[in-house]
Write a structure and sequence with these properties.
The protein is mainly α and about 230 residues long. The longest helix has 22 residues. It is built from 10 helices and 3 strands. It is globular, with a radius of gyration of 19 Å. A 3-stranded antiparallel beta sheet has the order 1-2-3, with helices on one face.
Length: about 230
Amino acid sequence: MTNAVPDPQSEDGRRAWAEARLGHRFENPALLRRALTHSSAARGNASYQRLEFLGDRVLGCAIAAKLFAAHDEAEGKLTARLHALVEGPANAEVARHLGVEPYVILEPSARMKGLAATDNVLGDIAEALVAALFLDAGWDKANAFVLAEWGRLEASGRKSLVDPKSRLQEWALKRRRGTPSYIVLHRDGPDHAPVFTIEARVRGEPPVQASGPNKQEAEKAAALLLLESLPQ
C-alpha cells in the first residue's frame, strides 16, 4: 500500500511541501502558513503582505551581493540585472517552479477565478517565503534558497522575465497585425479581493480571456495565454 499524499490545503501538506521543495522544516509552521495566505482568506493582518515587505528586502540584498561578486560592471548595468531578477514575473516564475499554486490559501471564489495562478499573487508569495525562511532559520538559509532558485532563473535566461504584453506587441507589430487590444469583460469578487477578467485580441487570431487581481495583472495573464497560442 502506498502512502497517501497529504492534502495541499492541510498543515501536513504544507509542511511536507516545504521540506521537499524549500529544503526546510519550519520550527514555526505559522510562518509558512502566513507566507501562503492571501488577504482574501486572512483574519486580521495574518496574510503574506507583511512578510512580502521583508522578503523583498532580503531577496534584493541576496541578489545584489551575488551580482556584485559575479559581474565587474557599472552600477547601471548591475541595477538592470537586479530588476530583471527580483520583479514580479521573475518571482512568479520561481513560485511556479516550486509548485506553490496548490498550497496558496485564499477565498474559494478567488481560487475558482484562477487568482492563485497569477503573477501578482505568486510573485508576492515567493518574496514572503524568503522572509519566512529568514525569520525561521536566519540569513544563511534564506540566502542559500535565493541563490538556488533565483540563480537557476538567471542561468536559464527564460523569456518569461520579459513583460508578456511587450512580447505580444512585438510579435504583432513584426507581422503587421497592429497593436494588441485588451477589453475588460467583468469585475467580480469583494472590494478587498477583486478579480478582473480581460480579453486580449490580435488581428487575425482567436481572442483569449484571463483573470487577475487588477487590470494590469489580468492583461499580462491574457497576453501570456495568447502568446502561447501564436505561431512563432
